[in-house]
């Protein structure tokens, strides 16, 4: 059971302590009233998430073997299951008592995995979270087509649920994600991309799905618009915090950290906020460095160290993390629309975890 | 107006006569009570189709320029608009009087264009209907992402319509199409693929969308299940006829024919029915030829002529066309569930056109 193994890893890592992103930006998560942790959220949704995993696997077991192989590969190596966990927890928060959230959590995870498959093709990636990517193992062609299949399965699940408001939310979100991906493709290598433009991109390509995941619970329980809007904003802010922390981790984490390898984004020439800010602040020589390494993708083995030094010189990692933290706090603030409960606390801790995590 | 120009081309080609596929398999379409023509169908839906075209273009006009450019490219070079025309005509046949069919015809065309964009990436095609493909002009990456966007727009349109039966039909169809595409990818170069396996593939990747397009009219007018099933079967049979005729045209049409270039499928190493049947019937030397040219994609400039000679030797073009014609007749037979009307006649003629066409 990959999920169980993952939880154990999470727990052991938590117990082991160690350098976290919190230390990088000079704060300690334990100093806050609400600590940064994914464990309460994971504990709350454990049984539901097991049902989601079973449903997901059952839905890719069918007669075309290549679909089953690729779907299982991407789903089994699927990381923290943060998006379905948020669907489940926000449904609990809104008092949902049926099992519609199981199906819709699976739909959200299918949308996400479809995006991952296509992302890896677009980025020409060969590794994801320490595993070979599907396109590296089976070909770009197979990844494109199986991504389409998973996207279709996501819509089949939503149609099976039968809620038009949920279908509207998720079809709009799916369009927004691809708009964000196209914007990112257009901005690739464009170092003059502004912070505002970058936030618009990650809002679309990452935060929109987090936002939708959290809103579903409000829709299926027919909560008032203000509460649905608060859930949407909680998810959106958490998503932006999550992406900005991810951007920072790529230049900050030590190589031994779980899953994440330092410098992946740099080597793939990805334009992320620490780079955008360092380029904007840099002198002519530094800008020429970024143009060569990120703009034109011409890199030598010394370049990552130079990039890190540049980023440190202008404190752009701290700036990125400060923004991430600010978004995480905005997420936590939205939860005040709901009465205090273990679920609300778990969601607050998850928002802080998005920033303080080391993986 | 590309649609008007297309109709004029169709009309002038019709008036000019000339060698048609009917002559290749020794029958004359004029000998039948119902002639083979797309003109009555196109005439009936002209005004509606213009609305569909306007809706389609309005839905890709938005702030991400690359999406708009690629979507307009693929939509403007979009051929005969057969699928949306079938949505419109079958809705008329069922007595639909509102405008829901406009939106749903656009949704079907979006699903189709999304498939075309991804197909060209998977096939590594550089030309489609005499135009450069989007992936050749803008990159595979852009085609993958804009295909995702168009697929999402299709679902947004269906959700806007709000019919869960239509959503179920089209999300199931979308999953089936990608299953068919994956099956085709797995069968690529596998000359031992059987006729039955091949029919299963084209049933999924091509005929399913034709079937869904025709069924929509029955669903939105809440016709009895027997009529919806007849529409589904009409579309499915027409779709198979259409694909088999397409397979035959690639080895039969003369180079000057509208849009279609001879030997495209051969040069791309596509496994189609004329090849499958010729391989099955061939001797060792002929099988070695197919293994080299289609199995391994190693071709010289003389090979197309050899392929055509082989196909002629075993009459596999005639066999393919006979099967196509049989499916077209099955399509026509399904129409007997509906009272005689100009729309029913137009649909019968369109089914025969799928086989008798020269482009």
Structure commentary:
The structure is a homodimer of 359-residue chains. Chain A is mostly helical and 359 residues long. Chain A has one domain (38-352): Farnesyl Diphosphate Synthase, CATH 1.10.600. Chain A is 74% helix and 1% strand. Chain A is built from 17 helices and two strands. Mean pLDDT of chain A is 87; it is low at 1-32. Chains A and B meet through helix 4, helix 6, helix 8 and helix 9 of A and helix 4, helix 6, helix 8 and helix 9 of B.
How would you summarize the topology of this molecule?
The structure is a homodimer of 359-residue chains.
Chain A: H1 2-16, H2 21-24, H3 39-60, H4 65-76, H5 82-93, H6 100-123, E1 127-128, E2 131-132, H7 134-138, H8 140-161, H9 164-187, H10 195-220, H11 225-252, H12 264-267, H13 273-281, H14 284-295, H15 303-313, H16 316-334, H17 342-356
Antiparallel strand pairs in A: 1-2
Helix pairs in contact in A: 3-5, 3-6, 3-17, 4-8, 5-6, 5-10, 5-17, 6-8, 6-9, 6-10, 9-10, 10-11, 11-16, 11-17, 13-15, 13-16, 16-17
